[in-house]
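pasting for the record
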Amino acid sequence: MQPSNEIKLILFSQHGMTDTNQDMKALAHKVAPPQTQVVAPNLGFFQTCFAIEPLIRKLEITATKNLKTHPNIPIRIIATSLGGVLWVELLSRYPEWLTRCESLILLGSPLGGADLARIIDPFGWGIGMAKHLGKNRRLLAEAIAATVPTLVVAGNTDGGGDGTITVESTKLKYAHFTCLNGVSHPKLKTHPTVVKTIQEFWSKPRDVLPAPEESLISKLIELFRYTPGMTDANAKDFNKAEIAFRFKDGTTIRTWKNPLGVHHVFIANVYEQCEYSGFVGWVHSNDLKHAIKTAIQFF
């Protein structure tokens, strides 16, 4: 550790589920500017599989200690997967920290809810970490991204996800967004392109992005994202969907039911490109049908 009078930045780097801090510590040291204190808490490999509150508490203790030790030093945060979820929860509980935060970088973090978690725990009964990762925290994350310059980095190996997390679930209003083709979920911690992407983001001052202009597509996305039981889905199944309704401008709502009977919905633009993908569990199938009827009636 450097003497406190030489430290100009604190860089928190947080690992995710079934992992240790080694890769995220190495990533932080690769991108850290001179005179940076790197803080990469190790939350434990097995501990990340169960309850989320003990993990938030461990991170809270470490963060609080460093912020109190260096009260006038700005901070930056890099977090991957579950690590991003933990930091969004923590920053939401300590909004006073946002004034010290120069940037937040989220690597493959499912803030809209992880589809694999919903598949493992479709009714939210509390099956390990799936109960927590399936939760939609987009509104919490967007409140932070509206204040702190935020970069979302997603990987894409199958046309709509990184093999673990869907691209859709990482997207946030107000945040800068980069999708790296060919980069898998584990590689988001180590890939040279990720290092370059972070360095480029920090190479010049960044502003919070304005909210996207309201359009038919943005209204439809908002409607479906907050339909009860909706989880962001992988866009790779878009080509299997059939058109349920076509609007005058060419925008379409498309639906597909997978072999397990799970209902999916997609929004496509006039160029036949997928703008949104989501699914609901069996218990919320009627909610999806109602949302589609609402979209047709009011939009």
